[in-house]
Write a structure and sequence with these properties.
517 residues; alpha/beta; seven-stranded mixed beta sheet; six-stranded mixed beta sheet; 21 strands; 34% helix; globular
């Protein structure tokens, strides 16, 4: 773990500050009164939130974004032409006006002291290409450059940290643990890969000793994190763009496990059980020998109920609003962490009962014309299966259940590499769907080598006996949905790309259709 990330006042500059992982870190640093700059290609509610806290954001990824810092180093004001260009680039930011500032105050401590003429610490994610003009300029200037994970690793060292890893369930589990610590009055700092209404975003700065962080394995940077408590929910191959084999993924998790003071793991996952051998275990099987188990489970349409056991002793009953076996497993991880931190089970159960979930994790977006619209981030075959199973629970347990109720799965494959690698598994993942609407593949920046297409995905799903419709564009998918959804349907939008952009327009159509003439 690098020791050179400087939290003493040196500015940070994020290339791609609006990303879900980058913005969470930028938020924490800005809340800690550190000077935060960054760039992105378009505005969003996430960047607006950062601007509201004083972050300066440039709406281009260009070498000129560093002119402010070069001016400070030179000890002079930029010329009018440069000021105009910089002012335009940061249009809409708050804080000190670039057009009137002679040199930016880079100390970040809120005082009126002298500006510190230092180049910023530049933060990048794996998504930033080495030939990115802004990145190249940072290299040429000699800026210290850190991967996003380096900053997270440094933050983790500042707290008694809880890092949640796993191929699936990271966001829900980390959010649930963060919510539990909030409800218990422990005032945690939280950094997660999704947005949560309870703290109005993807990050929260608390004054307590604990930090809850989502720990991502996608690019191998998981090995940098050294936490007091580590959690591993499961281990699968999910990122064939980075890993060639499952063994490489396992090796990454092994290093993470060794770096954690205490490892909590789900032994329903055979890899976690055999290869990681967690210090504290949890399982949905009461006879598994795990430290934390569940019994008398009721998987309902509105909630999940279970009795919870700790090393053979009954702790009590627990209810959560999240549906499905996978979410009960996530909740058991939270119970294990809460007990490690000395919380009473009654406080844990009360917090879990109040957790509404993270956005884009079976997030109900609306109910119009007797159609329920749900948005979910699922993009791996395993995630699709469990999410569709939860959808089936929802409609079969509904008081309005009729034979006409359908689960309509609208699926956008994510990345060519993932789609090609798991093509047979994707085809077999839609058993709980009555109708599948398949979209073309969202590239996530990958080049299209012509090896796989959305039409091929749709054809293979159809061969598995599913009724399938293919839409070559989001516009065609939206048109199909406005013409074919029926009252009683649960429309489930699945994918990590931009599919959910069409949800508002489809809902608006059915909202209008439900109004009396």
């Amino acid at each position: 773990m690098p020791s050179s990330v400087d939290f003493s006042g040196r500015p940070f500059h994020f290339i791609g500050i609006g990303g879900i992982g980058m913005s969470a870190l930028a938020y924490i640093l800005a809340k800690r009164k550190l000077p935060v700059y960054g760039s992105d290609l378009k505005s969003s509610h996430i960047t607006e939130r950062l601007q509201g806290m004083g972050a300066h954001i440039f709406w281009r990824q260009d070498a000129s974004n560093f002119e402010l810092f070069q001016t400070a180093l030179n000890g002079s004001s930029p010329d009018r032409g440069a000021l105009g260009a910089v002012s335009s680039a940061v249009a809409g930011t708050v804080g000190t006006s670039v057009a009137t500032a002679e040199a930016p105050k880079l100390n970040g401590n809120g005082s009126s002291g002298q500006a510190i003429p230092r180049l910023p610490q530049v933060v990048c994610s794996t998504a930033i290409h080495p030939e990115n003009a802004e990145y190249r300029a940072a290299l040429d200037l000699g800026c210290p450059i850190f991967h996003r994970s380096d900053v997270l690793a440094a933050l983790i060292q500042d707290y008694q940290s809880i890092a949640v890893a796993g191929t699936h369930g990271k966001t829900t589990t980390s959010s649930l643990i963060g919510f539990m610590l909030m409800a218990a009055g422990l005032d945690p700092t939280i950094v997660v890969g999704g947005e949560v209404n309870a703290w109005e975003g993807n990050a929260r700065l608390g004054e307590g000793p604990y930090l809850v962080a989502e720990a991502d394995e996608s690019d191998g940077s998981l090995v940098k994190l050294v936490a007091k408590i580590g959690i591993v929910t499961n281990v699968e191959l999910d990122h064939p763009d980075h890993y060639d084999t499952l063994d490489q993924v396992i090796d990454t998790f092994k290093v993470f496990a060794q770096n954690c003071q205490t490892l909590v793991g789900c032994i329903d996952d055979q890899i976690v059980k055999d290869c990681l051998q967690p210090n504290v275990s949890y399982s949905l099987q009461q006879n598994s020998g795990a430290d934390y188990t569940a019994s008398g489970v009721e998987y309902g349409a509105e909630s999940t109920k279970a009795g919870i056991w700790e090393r053979g002793a009954f702790l009590g009953e627990m209810e959560l609003k999240l549906l499905g076996k996978h979410n009960l497993s996530n909740a058991l991880a939270a119970v294990a962490v809460g007990r490690l931190l000395g919380l009473e089970f009654s406080a844990i159960a009360k917090a879990i009962a109040g957790f509404e979930g993270a956005r884009r994790r079976f997030e109900v977006r609306g109910f119009h014309n007797d159609i329920l619209f749900v948005d979910d981030y699922a993009h791996h075959p395993s995630e699709i299966r469990v999410t569709l199973a939860a959808a089936r629970l929802r409609i079969e347990g509904s008081e309005k259940n009729t034979k006409s109720r359908r689960v309509v799965a609208i699926f956008q494959p994510h990345r060519y590499s993932r789609t090609l690698t798991f093509l047979p598994e994707f085809a077999q993942s839609f058993g709980d769907a009555d109708l599948v609407v398949a979209c073309d593949i969202y590239s996530a920046g990958e080049p299209n080598l012509g090896e796989i297409s959305g039409q091929q995905v749709a054809d293979l799903i159809a061969k598995e006996g599913r009724k399938v419709e293919f839409g070559h564009s989001l516009e065609s998918v939206s048109k199909f949905l406005t013409e074919n959804l029926q009252p009683g349907d649960l429309a489930l939008f699945l994918g990590a790309g931009n599919l959910n952009q069409i949800i508002p327009e489809v809902m608006a159509f059915y909202q209008q259709a439900s109004r009396p003439n």
